[in-house]
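Holo model, FE2/S2 (inorganic) cluster. Inputs:
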Amino acid sequence: MQQTVNLTVNGKTVALTIDPRTLLVQVIREQLALTGTHVGCDTAQCGACTVHMNGRAVKACSILAVQAEGAQITTIEGLSTGALDPMQEAFRDCHALQCGFCTPGMVMSAVQLISDNPNPTEAEIREGLDGNICRCTGYQNIVRAIKQAAEGAASARGTSSQPEAART
Ligand code: FES
Ligand code: FES
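Output:
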C-alpha cells in the first residue's frame, strides 16, 4: 500500500507517494536528494539526521514521513540562501569540524539551541548538544563556534552578552 505525503521542504511544496513505513530521513535523502542530512545510527542517538520540522530540531530517522504530513521541513541545504548562515560561518571560523559527518546535524541543533537560549553558557551549550555525537572534534571548537554565533547574533540585535560568571 502506498500513501501520499505533502511536505514543504526548504520552502518548496512536494507531494510524494511512498510506502507508509518510509522514514522522513529516507524521503529527504533518497527521494529529494538532499544528502546534507546524514544517517549515522538510524536509532535516534547520533543526531546526524537533525532537521527542523515546523521550526523545531528533530531527528529525521525517528519520524515516519507520513507523521510529517503538512509540515515545514528545513534541512541544512535550506538553512541559508546564498551566503552561509552565521552558525555555519562560526563553525568554519572556529574549526569546529574535522570529517564533517556530524556537522549538518550539529549546525541544525545549534541553530535551535541559540534560538531557544540566545545567550547560553558553555554548560548549557554542552547540555543542548546532548543528542548530537561527534567522533572527531572533542567538542571544544563546536562549543566555541556556538558561543561565537550567539555573541554575533546578540551584537546584531544590539544586546551584548552577559558575562557567563554573572549567570552561574
Ligand atoms: Fe538519526 Fe543517528 S541517524 S539520530
Ligand atoms: Fe567528524 Fe564530527 S567532525 S564526526
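The longest helix spans residues 140-157. The chain has a mean pLDDT of 94.
Archived with the compound record.
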